[in-house]
Amino acid sequence: MNSELLATRKLSIRMCSCSGPQTLIGPVDLSVPEKGITALVGESGCGKTVVSLAILGLLPAGSEAKGVISFNGTDLLSLKEKELREMRGKEIAYIPQNPATALTPVLSAEDQIAETLYYHEGLTGASLHRKVISLLESMGLYNPEHVARSCPHTLSGGMRRRVAIAAALACSPRLIIADEPTSGLDSRTRKNVLDLLGRSSEGRAMLLITHDLEAALSVSDRITVMYAGEVVETGDIMDVFDSPAHPYTRALLSATPSRGLIPIPGNSPLLSTIPEGCRFAPRCPHSTARCRLRHPSLTRLSGTRVVRCDMPC
Amino acid sequence: MYWNYLVKRLAISIITFFIAACIIFLLLRTMPGDFVSNLVLSFGNTLPQETVEAFYRANGLDRPLHAQLVTFFSGAFTFNTGTSFLYGVPAGGLIADRIGWTLLLLIPAAVFSLFIGVLLGVWSSWKQGSGTDSSLLAFMMAVRAIPSYWWGTMAILFFAFLIPFFPLGGYTSLTVLDSGLSIQDVLWHAALPVVVLTLVGIPGTYYLMRNSMIHTLQEDYILFARARGLPETRVVRHAFRCALLPVITMSALQIAGLIMGSVFVETVFSWPGVGLLTTEALQNRDLPVLEAIFLLDTVAIIVANLVVDLSYPLLDPRVKRYGE
Question: What CATH topology corresponds to B92-315?
Answer without folding.
Answer: MetI-like fold (1.10.3720)
